[in-house]
Design a protein that fits this description.
195 residues; alpha/beta; Rossmann fold; 5-stranded mixed beta sheet
């Protein structure tokens, strides 16, 4: 890869606190499920630490999911880093669609992940398959690689999407996304491709 990439999972959101799955783009874009006050503080701390460690700086390009919890996370990151560039919003970083599990308890994630391990192409209960997510996430990397060179790029997105992106960069099956250490809310992590 021509660019160093860093991923950032959004901070604690209203959906996290409510304990429900919010994956519908319409609901996700509304302000109803944006960051909580605690979530904003989590982002401030993690991005400040990443800046102090030299992972992120004022030249970092920020690309985010259109969901409000990610857009707000990206805005805080931009403010802390003092970046002059506009935040890029890319729909390919949107939350995984959880189909019939939408607005149900988050405990249902485990049911989806159990199916993921068996079959990366499953769409049980109308969920978006890990294979589809891996493809759209890698597509963003290909686009960014064609447009930028030696630019630190911060990708702000959601747990499953970022986990599955990592499998793609490691040339692993997306079915293995739960085998990678799971990103906590507002966690910053540098990522690399195989080779």
């Amino acid at each position: 890869m021509h660019n160093p990439y860093v991923i950032l999972r959004h901070g604690q959101s209203a959906a996290n606190v409510a304990g429900i799955i919010v994956s519908n783009p319409q609901s996700g874009r509304s302000g109803d499920y944006t960051l909580t006050g605690e979530g904003e503080e989590q982002v401030r701390q993690s991005v400040s630490q990443a800046k102090e460690a030299g992972l992120l700086d004022a030249h970092t390009l920020i690309v985010t999911s259109p969901f409000s919890r990610c857009v707000r996370t990206a805005e805080i990151a931009k403010e802390i880093l003092g970046t002059g560039s506009n935040i890029l919003v890319d729909d390919r970083l949107r939350e995984r669609w959880f189909g019939e599990w939408e607005e149900t308890p988050q405990s249902n994630y485990e049911k989806v992940w159990s199916e993921d391990k068996k079959n990366p192409n499953h769409t049980t209960a109308g969920v978006e398959s890990t294979r589809e997510i891996q493809e759209r996430a890698l597509d963003i990397i290909r686009d960014l690689e064609s447009r930028y060179n030696d630019r630190t790029i911060l990708l702000v997105s959601h747990g499953d999407v970022l986990q599955i992106l990592q499998t793609g960069l490691q040339e692993q099956s997306p079915a293995l996304h739960r085998d990678i250490p799971y990103l906590k809310t507002a966690e910053v992590r540098p990522i690399e491709a195989v080779g």
